[in-house]
Amino acid sequence: MKEMSKKNSGSEKSAPKVTISVIKADVGGYVGHSSSHPDILKKAETMLAKAKQNKILNDFCVTSCGDDLELIMTHKKGCDSRDIHGLAWKVFEEGTALAKKMKLYGAGQDMLADAFSGNVKGMGPGVAEMEIVERKSEPIIVFMGDKCAPGAWNFPLFKMFADPFNTIGLIIDPSMHDGFKFEIHDIKKDKNFMLSTPEEMYDLLVLIGSAENYIIKAIYTKKGEIAASSSTQKLYLIAGRYVGKDDPVLIVRGQSGLPAMGEILEPFSFPHLVTGWMRGSHYGPLMPTSQKEANPTRFDGPPRVIAFGFQVSNGMLVGPRDMFDDPSYDYARKQANKIANFMRAHGPFEPHRLPLTEMEYTTLPEVLKKLQLRMK
Ligand code: F6R
Ligand code: MG
Ligand code: MG
Question: Per the confidence metrics, is the pTM higher than 0.90?
Fold first, then answer.
């Protein structure tokens, strides 16, 4: 039996800290809301390369998931850094200007504020960040979703960090046996609190099972080390109107006392139902694909998730490895297509269409107003 994993466990106390920031925005779709234009990605790459040259960033990776521009950055400035958020905002601003020039669809869709005010949170873009002390080897996976909401991570995060039927390490690896702490965000009341597993698993599930209300914001080891961090903002709560689904991002650290890469990826072998898809107003299966295949077209979907793996090495990103570019996810994709057919057959009926309170587009007030005179 494996002894408490010593080779990579714990942090190297003397090692410097590095921050991983994943900041994303939809600055314009190509074509419609289905994908991103290569010129926008090129622009972002040039800007981040300059920031790396100027020592603002250690390293970066630019990619897209559907119509979302994804900036994966490492640096030494900590979470919520004005410099890093300002840099991302500038990239999105210039991306928007280019998108407008090409008349890409919904140019500047996620740029809800007129001017940058220190932090992109609450201004439209999505953010997941963590500051870490690099272990001897630091494997991470960055998940990026399109046509779905931040609650999409609740199910897989629970499976990774609390479900022994998914993560055998919880049972047979002594360094994981104590369980984990979950930071929950009540997005409607804007309040955060912690719950511990396995002790409070049932309390956790009663909340996170309602993924439109309670979102897993972060996960920590019982010793307090960060293990996962997600983007939790809800655009429509910020904007007060429909502005597209939030298309969330998530950073997960793995191995050596944390879930193994395979345990982190395993939950996505089941394409669970998430909110989003067409007009942000439907339930549909979350389909895991390679980055190249993350261009949702059928009924503007079905929702996609991609996974970029990296080895973080002295603040640099060794990678990406496109983790779902693997035939072992073929069956999940096939199943997602089958579920998509089944859900689509409901047309405008619930539970394919979201309940009235959760729909992001609605004609209900107008219809009720029109009918008021006829009502008895
Ligand atoms: C979903 C999404 C799309 C649009 C749909 C209609 O997140 O972005 O499904 O909602 O294509 O878009 P508009 O209203 O811009 O024509
Ligand atoms: Mg869009
Ligand atoms: Mg999108």
Answer: yes
